[in-house]
Amino acid sequence: MKLTKSDVTLNEKDSILDMLESEKHLMTIYNTALFEGSTKAMRKNFSTNLLGVAENQYLLFTQMNTRGYYEPKPANKTVIDEACDTFKKQKNSLKANG
Fold it and tell me: d(Cα 84, Cα 91) in Å, to the nearest integer?
């Protein structure tokens, strides 16, 4: 059975989540476009658009978080410590080679 648009109704949470996922996807596209841009004007345009999409993504995240639809999980201390160690090693490596 094929569903039509009139057969599907999104609730508020699903609608905001759909918009949030769209903004995240747009961020990926603009990020790639920024790297591949061949002129200064084009890169500036992509950069401006990327910042706008990032702001939209944050506003949607805030709305979801405020409504209790998107609750970030607390970070595991071990994972944080491992990430810090990794970045410290990289920083020291860059200082040594710089």
Answer: 10
Residue 59 CA, chain-centre distance (Å), reads: 12
Is residue 18 within 8 A of residue 64, CB to CB? The reply is: no
Whole-angstrom Cα distance, residue 66 to residue 91?
37
Name the packing angle between helices 12-36 and 40-66 (round to 10°). 160
Q: Could you read off the pLDDT of 41-83 as tens digits, one per residue?
A: 999 999 999 999 999 999 999 999 999 998 777 888 998 889 8
Measured between alpha carbons, how far is 44 from 47 in angstroms, rounded to an integer? 5
Q: Tokens at residue 62, please?
A: 């805030």
